Amino acid sequence: MDENQPTTPAVQTVPKAQYWRQVFETWKNSGERQTAFCRTRNISRNAFMYWKKLLLPPAPSSSPSFVRVPLNRRSAACESSIAIVLDSRYRIEVKGALDAQALRQVVEIMEGIRR
Fold first, then answer.
1. Are residues 46 and 23 part of one domain?
2. Are 88 and 102 part of one and the same domain?
3. How far is Cα 40 from Cα 14, in angstroms, rounded to an integer?
4. What does the pLDDT profile of the chain (115 residues) look like in tens digits?
5. pTM, whole model, 2 decimals?
6. Which residues form the domain of 80?
7. End-to-end CA distance of the chain
8. Which residues contact 45 (CB under 8 A, 6 or more apart)?
9. Which of 7, 19, 84, 97 could form a disulfide with 77 if both were Cys (CB 3.0 to 4.6 A apart)?
10. Do 45 and 35 touch, CB atoms closer than 8 A?
11. What pLDDT shows up at residue 72?
12. Is 39 domain-assigned?
């Protein structure tokens, strides 16, 4: 046996973070859901989620949260001011009287925006 030849082939290792960045790039380009992507490539879903959380920025929330506000059924108009804020993009503020039907229409329109 020649002393200058290694007994095992040289293995080039890729740092883990770089490997997982490549995995995530492949996943994004594949169009597959995470579970299917991991299953077809024999990747641990737990490891995928761990590295995804560690390396990728969180996805921005695309749907705002709405809170149901009960309307006073006895009064046809609200006598105070109201402000409705959707993300940081929209702010609707009404001062003075606002009838309940108009408020319902504003809420329906805003719910349409979040879809």
1. yes
2. yes
3. 22
4. 455 544 444 555 568 889 999 999 999 999 999 999 999 999 999 999 999 988 888 776 666 667 777 766 655 554 577 777 766 667 777 777 777 787 778 777 777 765 5
5. 0.42
6. 61-115
7. 70
8. 34, 35, 38
9. 97
10. yes
11. 65
12. yes
